[in-house]
Amino acid sequence: MKTIVVCSGGLDSVSLAHRVAAESELLGLISFDYGQRHRKELDFAAACAVRLGVFHEIIDMRGIGSRLTGSALTDDLDVPDGHYAEETMRVTVVPNRNAIMLSVAFGVAAARGADAVAIAVHGGDHFIYPDCRPGFIDAFQAMQDHALDGYASVKLLAPYVNGSKADIVTDGARHGTPFGETWSCYKGGALHCGRCGTCVERREAFHLAGIEDPTDYEDPDFWKAATKGFRAEETR
């Protein structure tokens, strides 16, 4: 299938881009600038597109993002440290972000004659992000079937939605993803901080996958304490 990947520049979406490029026809990557404080991730998405030889479009959503207030990813709020599934991480929710982005991506896909849009949501996102859960993926597909009825047929691919971050690392390694050329940290510093939820999750995933993590962290060992004995019931 001719597929467009929603690519932030993070480990998950870059791994997905490499998977799609290996298994089907990757048309290009779409990224979104919604005013995120870690906007440097978009540079990694651009580099991925160059590496895979496909187009890359950055959709300017800063006007919309400025109105989706209350998130540590867009507002002047501290990004919390700790495990991704902790209650404190809810401050990183950007309301309706994936629904908005996917609506735009589906429009672009229909206009370009693509067969599918792929997104890298995964099981570790389910705890705090409602627009990363299987129910959302199914409902969004149903909505788009109606929205594009008679004009285009575009499928939503979410191959990691029931998997873990460690599964993505394993899959990414299988498809030659250069993990060092991805960006996860929500704080957007010179190095990955090693303490925010997405850094902790990233470091833990490499450990669980048994694959060497090439990432430089300001605090490379914080993840051990943050994940020790932590359990959370997955929301689906």
Structural commentary:
The chain has helices at 11-23, 41-52, 62-65, 97-112, 134-147, 165-174, 197-209, 222-227; strands at 2-6, 25-33, 55-60, 116-118, 155-157. With 236 residues, the protein is of the alpha/beta class. A five-stranded parallel β-sheet has the order 3-2-1-4-5, with helices on both faces. The longest helix is centred in the middle third of the chain and has 16 residues, at 97-112. It is globular, with a radius of gyration of 17 Å.
Summarize the structure.
The chain is of the alpha/beta class and 236 residues long. The protein is built from eight helices and five strands.
Proportion of helical residues: 25-40%
Taken as a percent bin, the fraction of beta residues is: 5-15%
Order of helices and strands: EHEHEHHEHEHHH
What is the count of β-strands? 5
Query: What is the alpha-carbon Rg in Å?
Result: 17 Å
What topology, given as strand order, has the largest sheet? 3-2-1-4-5
Low-confidence stretches: 232-236
Count the DSSP helices. 8
